[in-house]
Amino acid sequence: MEITPQDHIKGAGENARVTIVEWSDFQCPACQTYYPVLSQLVEDFPSDVRVIYRHFPLRQIHANANNSALVSEAAALQGKFWEMHNALFDNQEEWSGSRDIAFFDKYASAIGLDIEKYKTDLKSEAAADKVANDLKEALRLNLNSTPTMFVNGKKIANPNSYQEFVDLIAKEITPEVVQ
């Protein structure tokens, strides 16, 4: 799985021994459940783990899936993708029922975005293309649900706990001894 300069990367840099690629939808309750777990992994393994967020908005299920993805990309154009990522997951219940994309403006203000630039970027080709390209890649990989995760390029069953993630990371970091 290719990592590109357009990817949103959190944690260890290029030398990370474990790369977790998460295909996610900001309106997905299961994705919200994994958000603090993935953040904790990056914090606990700062030299070894990086998490890459990719959009997989389930538009047929979540009315605001695409809007929230665009909102995060507008924030990314001001260097604040992860701040918006956190705001969206932290407040998911609040915005999920809204039908007005302007509802997200308060999160843009809260994380310190230039609001006029944000509103322009929200309608930009750059934001739309990033979301569309991530979605296209998810479909090419035959993904059908969120979250879907890959560890070092291998699709995994979603771990049921933080400890299961730690065990997966340990296997990647510690090569098996051949007897």
UniProtKB/TrEMBL annotation:
Q: Does the keyword Signal feature in the UniProt annotation? A: yes
Pfam families from the UniProt entry: Thioredoxin_4 (PF13462)
Q: Name one GO molecular function term.
A: oxidoreductase activity
Domain named Thioredoxin: which ranges?
A: 1-174
Q: Which UniProt keywords apply?
A: Disulfide bond, Oxidoreductase, Redox-active center, Signal
What does the similarity note say?
Answer: Belongs to the thioredoxin family. DsbA subfamily.
Could you tell me what this protein is called? Answer: Thioredoxin domain-containing protein
Question: Which top-level group of life is the source organism from?
Answer: Bacteria
Give the residue range of the signal peptide: none
